[in-house]
């Protein structure tokens, strides 16, 4: 049950309105998570800026796969519904690829290294081993790419935590637990 109400359009703080309106135009509706998050213009606009910057990092399939892996570890059911939807409809990942990403893997070897590394980062709170670091580097990722993977983990964790704390009503199709599919 939601712990706070999503804002109606007339309740959105003026400082959040341009960002929220842009998302609404791009997506076609206002997700409850964003209408909830918009209550804090500082946090919401900071996240939106980070999201915009990181949308240039890596490729869409890798970013969505990392979002799925992180959301699974963080137990964010709202984000799992969003990332499963975007992975299928925008990144064009097959259902088995979505489940694999939630488990911290991918069929593509390079993407698999990034997703495994992201999974290790979130599981260990960044205390990865030298072997973990070497594996992602050996897959062809530069230090800058590795920093982008870590930044994606942090960004996805932010929305996971916001959604786990405030529990907005889900407005994307439900997904089954990764272990049951």
UniProtKB/TrEMBL annotation:
Pfam short name (any one): CMD
Q: Which UniProt keywords apply?
A: Oxidoreductase, Peroxidase
Molecular function terms from GO: peroxiredoxin activity
- Where do the Carboxymuconolactone decarboxylase-like domain residues begin and end? 44-117
Going by the entry's taxonomy, the superkingdom of the source organism is recorded as Bacteria
Show the stretches that span the lipid bilayer. none
Protein name according to UniProt = Peroxidase-related enzyme
- Organism, by scientific name, is Cupriavidus phytorum
């Amino acid at each position: 049950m939601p712990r706070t109400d999503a804002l109606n359009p007339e309740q959105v703080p003026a400082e959040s309105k341009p960002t929220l309106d842009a998302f609404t135009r791009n997506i076609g509706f206002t997700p409850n998570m964003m209408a909830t998050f918009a209550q804090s213009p500082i946090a919401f606009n900071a996240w939106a800026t980070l999201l915009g910057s990181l949308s240039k990092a890596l490729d869409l399939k890798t970013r969505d796969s990392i979002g799925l892996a992180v959301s699974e570890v963080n137990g964010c059911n709202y984000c799992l519904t969003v990332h499963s939807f975007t992975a299928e409809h925008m990144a064009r990942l097959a259902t088995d690829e979505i489940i694999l990403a939630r488990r911290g893997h991918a069929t593509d070897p390079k993407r698999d290294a990034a997703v495994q590394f992201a999974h290790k980062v979130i599981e260990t709170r960044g205390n990865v081993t030298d072997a973990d670091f070497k594996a992602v580097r050996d897959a062809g990722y530069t230090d800058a790419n590795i920093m982008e993977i870590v930044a994606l983990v942090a960004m996805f964790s932010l929305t996971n935590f916001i959604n786990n704390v405030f529990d907005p009503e889900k407005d994307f199709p439900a997904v089954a637990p990764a272990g049951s599919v």
